[in-house]
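Give me structure tokens for this 291-residue protein.
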Amino acid sequence: MMRASAGAAAVVLGLGALAWAAGAQEQPAFPASLERATLLAWMQRETDIMPERVVAVTPQSVTSVVSTFPAGGGQGPRVVIRAEALSAETFARTGSLSWHVSLSADCQARRVRLGETTGYAQRNLLGERRLLREADADWRIPEAGTALEYALRAACDPNFQGPFQTKTVKVAAAEGAPSTTAAPPSPSPAPAPAPRAVPAAVPVARFAPAAGGIVAQVGAAPSVADAQNLLTTLGRRVEGRTTWVETAQVGGKTWRRALVGGFASAADAQAFCAELKSAGRACFVRAGKPG
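Here you go.
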């Protein structure tokens, strides 16, 4: 998703990734340019990303925040970020049209640590998934002007403005796509004081879903029956909550999204998704309401 610091492993090219990518079932579409209007039209047509959540645009990908976990307990904030490939080259190298990763931020030392990067053969974190990159063993300091540095700023700076919050899109520095191998350890940064806690309301409010309610999307399938089965397999985890299937058109195809609602707050929904992800299930928080 983002450019690693010096010494990070290069993207592994190979027939395996290309064969796996064939599971996308149709020729993917990419934006004709990185101009603001063109990108917005493409995002609306091909993805479910909300422009206000985008933190960086590079020639390879558009990166946005899925959910935010505020600082607390002596730890800095953590965000889950996702990306959509913007070029055929990126897709060919990774076998992925979309991917997501958890990012822990040390705001005072200006460093980050990434969890595992998971790639998907289709847009919007759909389709077959695979591990693209192992989790970081150490903290790293992002290179200035890269998507990783913008993600750090979004987590730590209450005045951060994403690329679609300005009249023209500022394209971040070119970066490598997610590596399919683990990167060697980065040089350890100089000792730093304990992370400074960031007020909980700052990151949560900045990326709060738009009006219409907060829902957790736990998967998508081509048929209503398959989507309902995704909800059924959640068992007691959804007791007391509302569940339903939403129909969406993405890339000219009809998808049935499995949704869970009835959350008291964004933090409540994020905790629900965190529990599912710890069990190996897909889940992300977004705006929506029962249809």
